[in-house]
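# step 3/5: fold
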Amino acid sequence: MDLAVGPIRIEVIEPLKALRIVVEGEGLAADLLFTGRAFPIEEPRFVFRNGPRTFMDYTRMTQNGHYSGWIEVDGVRTQVADGCAGTRDRSWGVRPVGASDAQPHSGSRAPCFFWQWTPVNLGERSLFFHLNAHRSGRAWNTRAVIAPDHAGHDGFFETPDATMVTRHHAGTRWPAGGDLLIETDAGPLTVTFEPLQRFQMRGLGYTCPRWGHGLHHGELAVEREDFDLAALDPLAPDMGNLHVQILCRVTTSAGETGLGTFEQLVLGPYDPWGLTGYGDTPVSE
């Protein structure tokens, strides 16, 4: 298959193991090789309905691995250190993409959406946690997975018994770290997240009115957007400012250290944090 769209292409070097990503356009360029650390995990099927309507019905595979190659912005090239840890993921199914439904959703309560996702690269294993929760805080999809390096599809430990206590940046809905507790066969494992850098998911098209996922632009449209991270309104939901990934230093109660991502999107009310609308910020953890 030809996995190319405009200036971006993907080459499958070894299925489910190694991929090459090439970018050539708009002052941006890259040539990266990803090599997986273990077989990809498949997350539980996400099924969520607003009344009779299917809002989500999809699943996702996630894989931690190592990157090598380079990234270039306006002629300034940065070499990626061989073995640099990272994550890739791929979802398929029904998701809220493309043009919005013009009809109002059924139900009288204000719609809400709570999401946390934390892929982590440790020295000899990977760790994954995600949580989708109702307004009440009750999980409707959650799981933690521990994947040792080189493990096959049946070599993972997985459990729904994991909880995250989240800290927040003042005046925002952005996470400022947290403590994840996973109940494993060997006893409780505590994973602590300490923020290093913020990435706005707006840069990937999330909730962007022009470049939102699945919007039709004709046969081909290529455009670059530059924006000032420091000037973003952290509570503006229409431009993806609520949706962030926080690069974190990660430590565990088993004495491990590594790097991970703390992704979070909280739209609308969420009772455990005292959120009652769309423009307020957490008052409790």
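# step 4/5: annotate
The mean pLDDT is 93.
# step 5/5: archive (pending)
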